[in-house]
Structure formats: structure tokens, C-alpha cells
Amino acid sequence: MAALPRRIIKETQRLMQEPVPGISAVPSETNARYFHVIVTGPEDSPFEGGLFKLELFLPEDYPMSAPKVRFITKIYHPNIDRLGRICLDILKDKWSPALQIRTVLLSIQALLSAPNPDDPLANDVAELWKVNESEAIRNAKEWTRRYAMDN
């Protein structure tokens, strides 16, 4: 494998030295472009108390293209599908090389605090979120309890 670009080394060092509150991102021992991420469910959200595992991978052309990120822990969220893929503008058309790994992780954390059913990836979840938000929130809390706590 080619030597890591200086930018990735610097970003990784900063993540280790100045971790983002509620987020842990540790590079894999076998591939420094692959990160094991744990995001704590934000307070006052249906995901509060949950620990959500994600994987983040930096493609060869990073930072010219966005990191690949997906949830490994099951989550009931209108912007995250059953495969863990995330609908987030900065991971797609709004990506900019000025953004960093920590920006992406903070945006994912914010998405947990403020689901956006108007830009869904999981249409069934988004539909329920729109027509019966309290039931959708109950489901999200149940899934958090079932899949993101004590495991």
C-alpha cells in the first residue's frame, strides 16, 4: 500500500489528540484509511444512551472525494437505511476537500439530533416520521435500546 498522504496522517493525529465529544474514531491497525467509529447517541434525541458503531473509509482520492461512511449498528432513522448507508449532503454532492473527517463525524452526530424525513433514505421510516412522529420516535428509542445498548 502506498504511503499515507500527509493530510490523512495530520487528520488522524488530530482526531486522536483532540477527540470530538461523543465520538471515537480509531484507525484500523491493518489499514490506516479505515476507521472504527463509535458515536454516542446525542442527549435529548431518541438515540440518547446508545453507542452506534460506524465504519469510515477514506478512498484513494481523499480529500478530493468524500469518505465512505456507514452505520454497522442497526438504527431506526429516516436518513439511514437498513444497510447503514447515510443520506447526508456532505457525503455526496456537497462534499468539499476543505471538509475533514471530524466535520463528517460532527455532521452525522447532528443528523442523529435532527432527523430529516424530507430527504429520506429509509422511505418507510420517513413516512412514519411525517405522519406519526411520536410513534417513529418510540420505534427509534426501542431500536436504540435493542441494538445500541449493552452489546
TrEMBL record:
Per the Swiss-Prot or TrEMBL record, the active site comprises C87 (glycyl thioester intermediate)
Keyword vocabulary terms for this entry: ATP-binding, Nucleotide-binding, Transferase, Ubl conjugation pathway
What is an annotated GO biological process for this record, any one? Answer: protein ubiquitination
Q: Which domain of life is it from?
A: Eukaryota
CDD domains registered for this protein in UniProt: UBCc_UBE2N
Query: UBC core domain location, by residue?
Result: 3-149
One Pfam family named in its UniProt record? UQ_con
An example of a GO molecular function for this protein is: ATP binding
An annotated GO cellular component of this protein is: UBC13-MMS2 complex
Task: Tell me the PROSITE patterns matching this sequence.
Answer: UBC_1 (PS00183), UBC_2 (PS50127)
Q: InterPro entries attached here?
A: Ub_conjugating_enzyme, UBC, UBQ-conjugating_AS, UBQ-conjugating_enzyme/RWD
Which family does the UniProt entry place this protein in? Belongs to the ubiquitin-conjugating enzyme family.
Q: What is this protein called?
A: UBC core domain-containing protein
Native source species: Spodoptera exigua (Beet armyworm)
